[in-house]
Amino acid sequence: MRPQYLLRGLLALFMLSVGPLRIQAADDVVQQIPNNALAFVVVKNLQATSGEVDQTAQRMQLPAPRLLAMAKARLGSVKGVAETGDLAVALISQEVGSPFPVIFVRASDYEALLSGLNPQDQDGPSRQVTVAGQSVLVAKKGNYAVFTSPAFRAGLKRVVESTESVKFDDNSQAFLQQADAYAVATETGVKTLAQLAIVGLQQVKQQFAQAGPQGETVVAAFGIYEELFKWAAEEVEQVVVTVQINDSGAVSLAKRVDFRNTAEYAVTSSAASATKLLATLPKQSYVMAGAGQFGDSQAMEKWMKMSVNMMRAMPGSQQLTDEQTDQLLAATRKSMEGMRGMSFTFGVPEAGGSIYSRMGAVMEVQDANAFIENYVQGMQQMQQLFAGNQGLPYQILAAEKTQVAGVPGMKVVMQIMPAAFGAGGEQVKEMFDKMYGKDGKIEVFAAPVDANHVALAYVSESNLKEIIQAAKSPDEGLASDEGIQATAKLLSEKAQFVGYLNTEGMLQFVQRMMQSVVPAEQQAQLPQLPPFPSSPPLGFSFQYDGEALAAEMVAPAEFLTTLGKYIQTVQQGAAR
Description:
- With 576 residues, the chain is of the alpha+beta class.
- The protein has two domains: 3-167, no CATH class; 262-575, no CATH class.
- The protein is built from 18 helices and 19 strands.
- The chain has helices at residues 3-14, 22-32, 46-59, 67-75, 110-116, 153-161, 170-176, 187-208, 212-235, 271-276, 301-312, 322-336, 368-387, 429-436, 461-471, 482-488, 503-517, 557-575; strands spanning 37-43, 87-92, 100-106, 126-131, 134-141, 144-148, 181-185, 236-245, 251-259, 286-293, 339-347, 359-365, 394-404, 407-416, 441-450, 453-458, 497-501, 538-544, 548-555.
- The protein has a 19-stranded antiparallel beta sheet, with helices on both faces.
- Strand 5 (134-141) and strand 6 form a beta hairpin.
- Helix 1 (3-14) packs across helix 4 (67-75).
């Protein structure tokens, strides 16, 4: 039996494994999962979690799933299933053969549970039973019934007999404590799954390589993901993802990545203090805004290396040699020298303008003049490096210190090349000229605000003047936005980096981009969506301590309610 059929057959049974003892029950089920698990998922107190999901659906004016009711209607009465237990689904490795899934369900009376599933064989450590019309194996381990496919009888026996369970360190346990559900990829699992993904990508690349120039573009694009999985196999020790619906109805999705090679890195910050950095930016309509403190830029070496390696995997960039890649890394390091923090905003672009026409930032630096000097030198190094590689997807045409916005600053001119789109790039030149600027050229301007802050803007010096003025009047900046303030309260208190995605601005951005690339004679055919009502933005936070990266996405309850009403409005308009 294929694993997906097993999972479908047992889904209804999982829904009956419920209970209010969240932390205790979750600890218990984790103790049953053997240490050769590649990955596993735990759902705590499914009854309460199912209720929270139903409430969230109702808040969004969507049909409530009512998972428990559906399971009971399909299965009828299942005796012996504890209504106070959690559940887990684990992927177990084997010395020979493919990994296989097992499911742990809390049992109040194992024998009663067994008899209710109509065992088809004689007494033994594992029995063949029927769940929702599917034939499966079940065995007892601790207080749990453990299910798998009949094809994995020997593997199930090893799971039941195992005495070494998966472990968490104190930081991971604290991370999991408030979750309603979580998924874990263990150290062995990360390496194994990354290697499997690399093999799969290589097979796909071989197929597309036979499809001519367009296939070569796809192959190059897959190379970026291949580099990411290689990096994960070498650097990542464990990955944990959690889901939580808090008392206010906000939904939080969080992720923690533990690294093998740690680095000294310490930044004293919080979501509140990071958000305050947005005060240096103009209070205006935005698509995305973010801010954070970096600490010592040397500690960011890991991230710069990963970024450069992924850039090298982009279409047209594979021609960079190892020596040139090292030079690119050195230039990147030079351009960031002295940076301690940053706030940025990606605004709704001007009608008919570049997508960068409302993009700007303010950087917190050790010395503003020294930072500009280093940045220009870093860009000039990249310019020389890229100049000898005309097939690259981007070029730096100029980087110089000059007068901008009436003060000494710098100007950088970049160009997005047709190679960025791979084969056929010339055919879409008109479209990306509209999106980025004529011939793909983008101008960047920067100037000091004061001794420790540098303002940066794209496309025009007038944008830079606006940012400099906002940076000198922080009480009127973007940090005072009520929606941002509401979402900031939901983010992790220890976050060093925060981001806010404004749905209202995002829809405006999408519609403006569609209008800029669709021919005038087809403009009338574009869907006309109503404006998205004002609501708190989606929030993001990141925390890095040199050992692990914790990331979080939060959807406030008010946003979910507004989204539900908006979807109904769109559906009603489409039905007319």
